[in-house]
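Q: Hi! First time asking for a complex rather than a single chain. Here are the components, and I think there are two in total. Is that enough to go on?
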Amino acid sequence: MLALVLAAPAVAGAQGDGDTVAARPDEGRFWLGSYGRAVASSDLDGGRGRPSQVVAFGPRLTEGSYVELDLGFRALRDEVAHVDAVVTFAFADELFHATGEFDSRIALRQAYVEARDIEGSGAFVWAGSRMYRGDTIYLFDFWPLDELNTVGGGAGVRGDDWEVALQGGLNRLEDGFQVQRVPVPAPDTFAEEVLFLDRQRAVFSLKGERRFGGRGDAPGFKVRLYGEGHHLPSGRRALPGSFTETEPLPDDQGLLAGAQLGAWNLDPAQFVNLWLSMATGLAAYGEFQTPTGLNADRRTVDAREYRIAFDTNLQTGDLAVLLAGWARVFTDADGEDEDFDDRVEGAVAVRPTYFVNRWFTPAVEASYQISRPNGLNPRTLNQDAATVTQIGFVPAFTFSEAPKGPFARPQIRLIYAVSLMNDAALALYPADDPRAGQDTVHFLGVGAEWWFGRGGAY
Amino acid sequence: MWKWFSALLLAGCVTVDPDMAITDNVADWRDEIIYQVVVDRFEDGDPNNNWNVDYRKEAAYHGGDWQGLIDRLDYIEALGVTALWISPVVRNVESDAGFASYHGYWTQSFVDVNLHFGSLEKLRELVRECHARGIKVILDVVVNHVGQLFYYDINRNGQPDIVFYGGGGAGPGSQNQDQPSPLKRASEWDPEFDSRGVQGFTSLGENGLAPIVWVEEPAINRVPPSPAEFKNPLWYNRKGRVTAWENPQGLGWEQLRRQEMLGDFPGGLKDLDTTRDDVRAALIRAFQYWIEAADFDGFRIDTLKHVEPGFFEVFAPAMRKYAASLGKKNFFMFGEAFDGNDWLLGSYTHGEGVDSVFYFSAKYQVFDDVFGRGAPTSKVRELFEGRAKADDQGWMAEDDPSRPRYGDRPKTDGLVGADGERLTPQQTLVHFMDNHDVPRWLSTFPDVRKLRNALVYLFTFDGIPCLYYGTEQDFRGGPDPSNREDMWQSGFRTDGETFRHVQKLVEIRKKYAALRRGDVEIRWATDHTGEEPDAGLLAFERVYGRERALVLINTHDTRTTRTRGDDVMRTGFTAGARVVDVLNDGASFTIGADGALDVTVPARGARILVSAGGE
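A: Yes, that's all I need. Here is the structure of the assembled complex.
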């Protein structure tokens, strides 16, 4: 939240889908904000460019188009409180001019009201649908610690160099794990579809942050502690083709605990962030994922995920080097030691950017992904680590009033990336997938990336 | 940096041993007691593989898996059985006409596991866990056919049809009064047998062999076979479905057998041409793979009588040789020739083919007729003595009419007994009362006394006993699929009377080598089934070295029987020896002069007598 803004890196570093950026406009009660990238790409074989990814969070460089639009309204700004209403639409990678379909995959990602600094106390409260996030790793489009997407509310208190925040929310994913609609006989029509299974996941989080120094150009340091709790109530699901016969679904839980250490205004590091976390049960899967690999009781309680991640920007003179990496160990709840669904994986990436002048900012990005399952690939019956080595060249033109840095936007750029996939990576595709035979994958694209005017503290 | 990153990342990763340790587990197959399980119906140990599961439909997947078997090994071990026969493990066509492939006999891939049951790692874990408990594992394999992977395009329109042709007879107003044209129906999935090969047909009549069309429906895994070499039309007989099972159409024996061997198995299961060298080689490779991949101890071979017999003369030696090369010497192969014809069954035991067969003739003539219907026990003697008779004058004896009904010669590099002797098919017939293809015994004969009576015979006669899961829980499901109940419905109780009865019989069989390995000497078998003193009596001895056991079974429902008619029964025990009944209360008896023994056996009761001195 505010920490993002205060942690200078994040000023620059705001980056990511729905992330915070600089201050919102001072004038006017309405504002428009956006994050977006639009890209036309080719695989140099006649097809569309595509990411080459074998891990949960791959390089952002070759991702497709994505646009978020914020519509904000400042409802109040006086001694009572600062109150904003924010609505965010998000559009997925299907642009009309690319598909010819006059349609979009659109999501209403945010719709909330927040009141801050109530009666000058630093207290804040919000409610609605919200992307509730901490710091991100731009290179991987990845929030390593705190990222929740729920409908709910939260409150907290923010001081000059500390913050405590509590959040609670619900989701009910449209899948058979949480929702089931079943036709039943109806008195006035033959059948009426009723909600048979209706169980919402409740997600609560608590975070606290303490900052030291960091004012102006002075070096700063922060510690953030973060925890999540997940709960899914029990339910009953109708058996296929029946509205009278049901089977029970047990309740489930999950916990996550983690910490972030951050520093900024160092030389040459503009910022450094290190994250550590451990998750169990439902929390190991994340709030948007339908759990798989359940234990014999059909619960997730035995699932585990351990994460470690780091991110930094080393900047001096006309050169900035973004460097980031992450690793995770994931085991599902089924108790199998030798399990293809369980894995150790990670990725590292480095992106040097050279500021030839104010607007020509070419960059090179190298990344490496590795994923090793704990079981045999069912296709090959081998247990090999899948790897992708990617080199990208990004001649970019940056047109921004922001200070020189790797996060200045908007940017118009060419991207050429070549990915080398090893045999184990190719074996992750079905044997009959044409991609399974392409160990060298090209991506040539031209596009733009921008963020501006993002309102609210999310 | 990449290498450093990789090494750091993978330091704590679980490593799977890519190779299965191969073990030689079996000292003497006659010591083994086989327990047959339909994996899908035994225990659901992993809910994550339960797609397309519907417990309410008998013909659907029910969720059982290899993890479930692992979870229930304590139960299996408590029962005392020593070898587990598991239903096929290979990937199947998922469903057809509302029926699912939960049984495993609709092969799509010969070399991939059926994911409903788990991963290859899980299968290996099951075998390892079994071996750790001294339990052997037998794999059910199908070499005769694949699943319904192609159709015959009889009308050449490029889609699978139910084709009707003909004018539909000569009803009122028909223009065909003089030459009625019957309406014929042909399913392009499963057309009826045509010895010429399935013929194409148009309105102008037949137009030659119907082309076959491979189907590509990944949603139900009805896709071309794997390995890809099996996608060769010439590898299949392409003659359509077997329709003549018991000669109802007046076919000659050879015609009947030809249809059984060359026709598709009902359900459109496409028949492989196992006379071809390339087909044989491919099947050999596929099933050698499974020995090595999961350390199986033997194969139960499906649909034996539908395979051209010469196939096994090549297949079985290749398997023996390969298993031996891995260090597995007593690799056991026994086949299912679903037929009561004793001569037909025996024909498969000659030469270098399978080691043994399921003793279907004993199932019908002994278990069903004698123990179920109360037929005279003399049928047991007749069938037993028939094994060694050279009485087949038909084509099955081929050019050696002097050969016995069942093979009496060991196979080259075949089974070996605990004492080093080479075992013959006559010694290793697999006895069973029922299985997944026939109604459960209690379904046909719903009297648990009879069941327990028959179980005594199963566990004390020669050969290798095979128990169908759930028999010990008094399951009584009718014909397929009702005979494939969910084992978990039993609660895996171990205090039931039949369970304890089986447990005790197994203990006794394990304790006395004579009951496992001994030769059979039938001491009393009678034609009497009525009021006679010996009505229903069957008595036989098992003799192994100096060890001897005498089994007395009364198959009569109401009368106590006695070991005497005009004269008292003679045994092989020495005069004056004391014998003790180890099945019941430990009652002891003294052997009279000339080995005479005069004892009674209550209705549907049995005694197992062994020397009180341990002889």
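A: Helices of chain A lie at 2-6, 8-13, 96-99, 423-426. Let me know if you'd like any chain examined more closely.
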